[in-house]
Amino acid sequence: MDWLTTVDHKKIAILYLVAGGFFFGIGGIEALLIRVQLAKPMNDFVSAQQFNELITMHGTTMIFLGVMPVIFALMNAVIPLQIGARDVAFPFLNSLGFWTFLFGGLLLNLSWFMGGAPDAGWTSYTPLSTNAYSLTHGVDFYTIGLQIAGLGTLIGGLNFLATIITMRAPGMSFMRMPMFTWTSFVTSAMILFAFPAVTVGLVLLTFDRILGANFFEVSKGGNPVLWQHIFWIFGHPEVYILILPAFGVISEVISTFSRKRLFGYSSMVFATILIAFLGFMVWAHHMFTTGLGPVANALFSIATMLIAVPTGIKIFNWLFTMWGGQIRFTTANLFAAGFIPTFVMGGVTGVMLASAPADYQYHDTYFVVAHFHYVIVGGLVLGLFAGLHYWWPKMFGRILSEKLGKIEFWTFIIGFQLTFFVQHFLGLIGMQRRVFTYLPNQGFDLMNLISTIGAFLMGVGVIVFLVNIGITSRKPVGAANDPWDDGRTLEWSIPSPPPEYNFKQIPLVRGLDAFWKEKAAGHTEMTPSEPVGPIHMPSPTILPFVMSLGIFIAGLGFMFTSDDFGNSFLNFIFNNYIVTGLGLAVTFGSMLLRSLFDDHGWHIEEDELNGKGVKA
Amino acid sequence: MMKRWKAIKRLGPLFIGLSFMLSACGRADLSTLKPQGTVAAGQYDLMKLAISIMIVVMLIVFSIAAYVYIKFRRKPEHKEAPKQVEGNFKLEVLWTAIPLVLVLVLAVPTIQKVFAFGEDYSADKNAIKVKVSSHLFWWEFSYPDYGITTAQDLIIPANKKISLELKTMDVLHSFWVPSLAGKTDTNTDGTVNKTWIEATQEGVYLGKCAELCGPSHAFMEFKVKSVSQESFDLWVASMKEPVQTIEDPAIAEVFKNQCLSCHAIGEQGGSVGPNLTGIGSRESVASILLNSEGSGQLKGSKPVKDNLIEWLTDPQAVKPGNKMPSPKEDLGLTDNEIKAIAEYLANSKVSY
C-alpha cells in the first residue's frame, strides 16, 4: 500500500525500475522469439501474423516501456541528489507520471490477450495501420496505450525541467551541474518538444480508426506520408531522448573510476545541446526513400552527418578523461568502457546511413537493424547497466556482486556483438528487415543462425544480472556513503540509501564535482548552506493511482465503442460510451478532490532529524 | 599528425583487400556489394568511400581506447589522485575539426549522387517507361508505350534507362532491386514517385518489397530480367500475340468464370489480379515458388506446373494473407480442374 501512495522520488525510482525491468523482460522474450523464428530459412515456429505482432510489440515495448522507464528510474533516483534537493519540484505529478506510464503499458500489453497485438510495426505507418488493413484491435491498443504512457513521460519530463531549473542547491550554477543532470535536463527539454508531436499523431490515428476520420485516407483527401512526418518529428528526437541520459551516465562513471574530472566539461555541455538541437532537424532521414525529392534529401543528409561532430567531441572527451587517470574496472566501468567502442560502431554506421543515395540501399534492411541496435542496445542499454551498477548501492544500500557483474558483462557484450555485427552484412547482401522468414540459398542462413545464438547469450547475461540482484537483495543494507571511494558528486555525500528528506541541511556547492572538492580540501561532508531546521514533506496520496486507473478504464472503453460483443449488456455499456464516461468520471473526480482539498503536507522536526540523521 | 597519415598509407592495401572481401559477399543477383546497374554501382562507390572513412575513424578511436584501457589502469602505488585536467582547447578544436572535414569529404559525392539519382527520365525518348503498381502481395508492371502489362517479372533491355513511375494500390510498399538500384517507396495517389534503373548486363536480378506491408511482406519478391534489345522487342511482340484458349470447353468455362473475373490473359479478363500472359515463362509462381524452367535453376525449384498446382490448391498456405480466393474452398474447383488449369497456364509462354 505504501508503494501505491508514495510520492518520494527514491521510491518512485524503484517503481520505475521494477516496472521498466518487467517490460524489458517482455520485450526481451519477444526478441528471442523473433530470433528463434529467423534461426533457419522457411521456419514455421510462429506464423506471419504473429511475427508481425512480435516485431511491433518488441520495438514499441523496448522503446516506450523498457528503456524509457529505466532512464526515468535513474533520473528519479539521482537527479534530486545530484543537485542537492530534497525531492522533485512536483512530487504528486511525479507519482502521477509513473502510474499513467504503468497503466498505459499494461493496456498496450493487454492486447496479447484481447484478440491480437498491434501488427503494423512500431512506426505504425498508415495505411497499413488503418482499419482496412489491420483487422484486429491491435493498433487501437497501440494508439491509446501509448497515448496514456506518453502522458506519463511528458509529465515526468516537465517535472525534471522544473526541478533542475528551480531546486539546485546554493552555489550550483548551470555550469557546475553534474553531466548526468545536464543530459537529463536536455532530455527533459526534448521530451517537452517531441512528445506533443506523437500525441497529436496518435490522436489523429485514433480518430481515423475509431471515429472514422480521414486524416490518412487518400480517397477522402488524407495523406499517409503525413503520418510519417508526424511520427518521425517525434521519433527522431526520441532516440536522442534515449541516448543522452546514457551519455550522462557514462560521463559520471568514467570520471569516477578514472579519478579524474570530466575532460572538456564545457564542450560536453555544448555538444549535448547541439545534439539535441540537430536531433530535431533531421527527422526526414528516416524518409529518404519516401520520395521527398533531391533537395530535401540533400539537406537532411548534411544535417544528419553534422551530428557526428558533437558526438565525436563526446567520444574523445571520454577517452581523454581516462587518459592519465587511474582506471578501476568495476562492473559499472566495464560497461562504460564497453560502451565507447560499441557506440562508435553504431555512430559510424549512422553517418553512413546519413548519405541519402547510399541509404536508398541500406534503408529497411538488416543494416539499419544492426545500426540502431548498436546505438540503442550497445549505447543505451550498456549505459543503463553501467548506471545501475554504479548507483545500485545508493538506491538500495547494497553493492551488487562484482564477480557476477563481470560474468554478466562479458556474456552480454559478447552475445551482443555476435547478434548484431553480422546483421550489417545481412543487410548489405540484400536481406530486408521485418520479414518473418526468408528463402534458403540467398546467403542469409549462416549469419541468421549466428545472430540467434548471440541473442540467447545476451539473454544469459540478463539472467545473470537478475540472479545478481536476487543474491544481493538478501544481504544486509550496509553500503558506505561513498562506496566507490571516488564519488565526485553530491549524491555520495549522504547515506546509502538516503533518508526520506535526502539532505538534512542543503549543501553549499563550491565548484564542479562539489563533493570531490570538499574531499580534496580534507572534509568528509559537504558544507551546509543552512542551519538544521524542520523539513517540509509532501503527504502520500492514492489519487495519482486512481486518476491513472480512470484513464485506463476510459481508454479501454473508448476502444470498443463500435464493437458487437454478442451480449446486450456489454454492447449497451460500451457502445453508449458508458465505460468511457465512467473512467473519465473517476479521473476528473479525483482531479476535483485534489483541487478542493488542500493538503499542506507535514514536517520532520529538528529533534527527529538529529536522531535519525546518524542512524541512516 | 604525420604519423597518422603514414598509418593511413600503410592501411591502403587493407582497404583494397577490404573491397575484395566485401564484394565476395552475397549473390551477384541480390547483393548491394555486387552492383550490376548504373545506380547501384554509384551507390556502391559511395558505400566504399564511407566504409573506408569509418574504418579509419574506428581504428583511431579503438587504438586510443585500447591504449588508455591498458596504460592507465589503477596500480597499488596510486595513493594520490591524478592531476585534475580541465580540458585542452587545442585538442578539443582538433576533434571538432577532423570530423567536420571527414563529413565534408562524404557530403560532396552524396549531394552529387542525390541529384544524379533523382533525375527524371520520364520525358526522355530513349528511356523505356514502366508503371510499377504494388499490390498485396504482388507487383504489376505496365508499359504504356507498348500497351502491355505483366506481373512479377519485369523485362527490360540492358544498357537502357528505364524510367519508373511507382504507385501502390493498397498499403505502402517499397520497390528494391539491390543489385540494380536502391529502393523507392510506392506511395498512394498524390505522392507518386519516379525513379530510374539501368542494368549494365543481361541477367536476372532479385527484387524485394522493403516496406512492411502485412503478413506476406517477406514473400513479396519479384524479378528483373535484363535482356538484349532484340529479345526485348521479341518479348513485346510475343506479349501482344493472341493467347490460345483452353481446348476442353468445360475447363475453359470454369477458367473464364472463376479466374478471368480478376486475372487477365492476353486480351481477355480483368485487372484485379496479376496478369497471367506468359506465366509459363516466368521465374517463379507467386514469387516464392521457384520454377525449374527459370534461368537460375536454383536448388529447391520445381516445374512450373507443379508450382501452379501447389499455389492453386491452397494459396493461403503459400502466401498468408494474400487476396486471392481459394480455388478449392471459395470457388469450388476440383483437383482435376486445378490440374488442367495449371497445365494450361504452364504452357502459356512468351518468347524472347
UniProtKB/TrEMBL annotation, chain B:
The keyword Electron transport applies. Keywords: Copper, Electron transport, Heme, Iron, Membrane, Metal-binding, Respiratory chain, Translocase, Transmembrane, Transmembrane helix, Transport. Its EC number is 7.1.1.9. The chain crosses the membrane at residues 51-70, 91-111. InterPro entries: CcO_II (IPR045187), CcO_II-like_C (IPR002429), Copper_CuA (IPR001505), Cupredoxin (IPR008972), CuRO_CcO_Caa3_II (IPR034236), Cyt_c-like_dom (IPR009056), Cyt_c-like_dom_sf (IPR036909), Cyt_c_oxidase_su2 (IPR014222). Residues 24-121 form the Cytochrome oxidase subunit II transmembrane region profile domain. Its main location: membrane. PROSITE patterns: COX2, COX2_CUA, COX2_TM, CYTC, PROKAR_LIPOPROTEIN. SUPFAM superfamilies: Cupredoxins, Cytochrome c, Cytochrome c oxidase subunit II-like, transmembrane region. Pfam families: COX2, COX2_TM, Cytochrom_C. Residues 125-238 form the Cytochrome oxidase subunit II copper A binding domain. Residues 246-349 form the Cytochrome c domain. Coiled coil: none annotated. Its cofactor is Cu cation. Gene3D superfamilies: 1.10.287.90, Cupredoxins - blue copper proteins (2.60.40.420). It is a multi-pass membrane protein. Subunits I and II form the functional core of the enzyme complex. Electrons originating in cytochrome c are transferred via heme a and Cu(A) to the binuclear center formed by heme a3 and Cu(B). This is Cytochrome c oxidase subunit 2.
